[in-house]
Amino acid sequence: MAFDERLAQRVRDRLAGQSAVSEKRMFGGLAFLVNGNMCCGVHRHELILRLHPDHTARALAEPSTRIFDLSGRAMQGWILVDSGGLADERVLAEEK
Predict the structure, then answer these.
(1) What is the pLDDT of residues 70-86, one digit of tens each?
(2) Looking at the domain assignment, is residue 54 inside a domain?
(3) Which of 34, 40, 77, 96 has its CA 20 to 30 A from that of 70?
(4) 3-state per-residue secondary structure call for 18-35
(5) Range of the domain at 63
(6) Are 56 and 13 within 8 A, CB to CB?
(7) Domain count of the fold of the chain
């Protein structure tokens, strides 16, 4: 399954300079790992984000988000952000 290479590049750009970052094809997309642990990824045209499980409900209250659930078993602390939430190029941009 293809993933949005442009979105993947935006993530790469944001993670550039961070130590111990690697990429791995997972979930039919691309995962970004820090010290071997997945922190985010790209699935089709959506951004996968890992966050503290206690912050899941607050994150899901934001527009363009939904729980990350590919197998019928939702995981707390994992969300998807669709293209509507990523349209603004400032999202994922390096803070100045």
Answers:
(1) 788 887 899 999 999 99
(2) yes
(3) 34
(4) CCCEEEEEECCEEEEEEC
(5) 5-86
(6) no
(7) 1
